[in-house]
Request: fold
Amino acid sequence: MSNLNRNLTVLLHMKEYCEQVEKALEIFGKSIENFNNNVVFRNAISMPIFQIGELANHLTKDYIEITQNDINWNEIRGMRNRFAHGYYDMDYSIIFDTAIKDIPIIKEFIDKEIQKVIK
Reply:
């Protein structure tokens, strides 16, 4: 598989997880109180965010270097590591803020990157 195909495949999977976060917010609403009190809502948001971070580890180093000014891959991977190694003491407000603020930015970035390849 070429690096272009590899990165595109990873980005497509990341987009799917962004859409899952969007869907969960549609279903449960955008209330931090509901998020704090509903484990199903938290899990519906947390797992896709974790997976996005995991997938970021599969992008090529060259691609990460080329796009690092457009998106902070270190923060995305760092969130994955936090989920993997310290979920039990995660601050729910950080997860919720990531879903509300960062996921739309990530999805917009991915959409633009996909369009570059399709054109």
Summary: The radius of gyration is 14 Å. The CA atoms of residues 35 and 41 lie 6 Å apart.
